[in-house]
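If your schedule permits, I should be very grateful for your opinion on a structural question. I have a record of one protein: its chain in single-letter code and its fold written as C-alpha cells. Would you kindly read the sequence against the C-alpha cells and tell me how you understand this chain to fold? Thank you for your consideration; the sequence and its C-alpha cells are set out here.


***
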Amino acid sequence: MKLYSFRLIVSAAIIGVSALGAIDSARAQTAAAPPAAPVETKPAPWDVSAAAGLTLTRGNSSTLTTTANILGQKKWDQNELSLGADATYGKDNGTKNAESLHGFGQYNRLFTERIYGYARVDGLHDAVADLKYRVTLSPGAGYYFIKETNTTLSGEVGPGVIFERLGTNDHTYMTLRLAEKFEHKFSDRVRLWQSLEFLPQVDKFNNWILNAEVGVETKMSAKLGLRVFALDTYDNQPAPGRKKNDLKLVTALAYHF
C-alpha cells in the first residue's frame, strides 16, 4: 500500500511539473508575439456638390438671371450634418428683378435607427421682397418614416424663433416648425427630391411662411449632372407693396466633388 501511495505522489508531481512547463511555454509565445496592428478607420467623407445656372434673353426682352448653390452632407456614427447656400441675381431691361441669398445648417443626432433630434439655422436675404434679413433658429425632433437605400422620407416638428427686418420694421416672434423631406434614387444617375416647411407664428396663426422645393437631377457622368428644380416661398404677410408668393424655376449644371 505504501509503495502504491508513493507511486501516486510521484505521478501527480510529474503531471504538475508538465502543466507548469506548458503554461510557461504559452506565456513565452504570447510575449514573443507582436501586438495586433490597430484597425484604421477612415473618417466619413463629405458629399459635396455645386451647381450654377444662367438664363439670358435678348431681342424683345433683355433679361439676365444667374443662380448658384453649394450643398455638403456628412453622415457618421449616429450623426448627420447638412450645410448649404444659394444665391440668385437677375435684371430685366436693366432693372434688378431678383437678388436673394440663402444659407442653412442642420445637425441631426440619431437616438435610434429612425428617431432623431435636430438643431437648425436658416438665414435669408431677398432685396426684391424687401426682406433685409430673416434668421430662423429651430430645435426639434424628427422621424424617418422610410429609411431605405434608395428612398427616405422624414418628418420634423419643433419650436422656433424668427428674427427679421421686413421693410423698415423689425420683428421677433416664436414659431412652430413642421417639415417633411423626401428623396428617391431611381438609379445611380437619376434622383428626385422634395421638401416642405410650414412656419406659423404661435400667437398669430395668420402670419405664416411656407417653403417648398421639388427637383430632379440626371447625372451625365460620374461628376457632372443636370438639375431642374423649383423653389417656392409663400409669406402670408409680406412687406407693404410686395406679393405674397415668390417662385423660382431653375435649370443648372451640377458638379459633384
Summary: Residues 5 and 11 are 10 Å apart (CA to CA). DSSP finds one helix and twelve strands in the chain.
